[in-house]
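[audit] Reproducing an earlier prediction to check determinism. Same input, same settings, fresh worker. If the tokens differ from the archived copy the diff job will pick it up downstream; this log only records the rerun itself.
[audit] input (356 residues):
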Amino acid sequence: MTKKKKLSNPPTRIEHVSSSIKKVFIGLLATNRQYLARRPHRSFRRTRRRDYTRSLTLPGHWAFTSSVYQTLRQHRKTFLLLTLVYAVLTAIMVGTASQDIYTTLTDTLRQTGTDVFQGNLGELGKAGLLFITATTGGLSQTLTEVQQVYAGLIALLTWLTTVWLLRNLLAGHRVTLRDGLYNAAAPLLSTFIVALVLVVQLLPLALALIGYSAALSSGLLSGGVEAMLFWLVAGLLGLLSLYWTTSTFIALAVVTLPGMYPFRALKTAGDLVMGRRIRILLRLMWLTATVAVAWVLVMIPVILFDTWLKGLWPALQGLPIIPFVLLGLGSLTIVWSASYIYLLYRKVVADDAEPA
């Protein structure tokens, strides 16, 4: 009879757990080494100029904005239809600003305006108050949880459709809005996760704004060391949010690539903006400034016209001119912002220089 081979003892549960922890630890070390190899910057260490100087060839602010406008203008029918679809879906599923609230506010200002304002400046002052109220949501009723979900979902779909259309149109493909609406929603979940990361990164700025409201009501900002410390902390919180979100906005464009996962998109965007973060941040701030100026240039004349028209014909008081203009401008803003950020992302990718 042949002797049976003596079987080795199987690994115990403790040994199995220890082996799993060892594998995870080794994987984390490898990930950290890869990260340090990609990023020459180190926390609390001075970075030499050769390590953070990185080329980024971009047109001037006006030139780049003009190129975005020309791109949209070249395909204006498609993008205007997209804006219309977004506006209609928002009006049906979320609602518009309240015309009744706007009428009440207008009547109140008309009755008290003669004591507060004088002449043409008075009309501009009242229009300015109405504009601030309208753009800060003062005319909108409180949205239900379902309406908030619908609003976020429609905004994400509009963003994805805009990027999908631009990517295919710039590649020379003949596509229609229907193609974009049917095909652009594939990375919806990935984009939603990146958007959630963006919201989390904005929390420091939100804390700064909440602290500002509390400090203003308590008189903390009247002066002294307390006010100086508050502005220092609030400024650092705001800078932290700006630092984080700069790469996340680019990640919103990266994540729309086929087969791209959300956290891989965040990592890729972080690598793209490294050494270029301030220049990209300035472009995003320029986008915000141009959108704000456009809203002022459109809304103030419309409010003045609406006030004059309804003062001339009181029977038109129920005509919702301002809510519809707000809805249209909001739709255009999302399409414009998505186009601007996506074309900015293409410019960043086109200059594929590595850090020194």
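[audit] rerun output stored. Observation attached for the diff report: Residues 59-350 form one domain.
[audit] end
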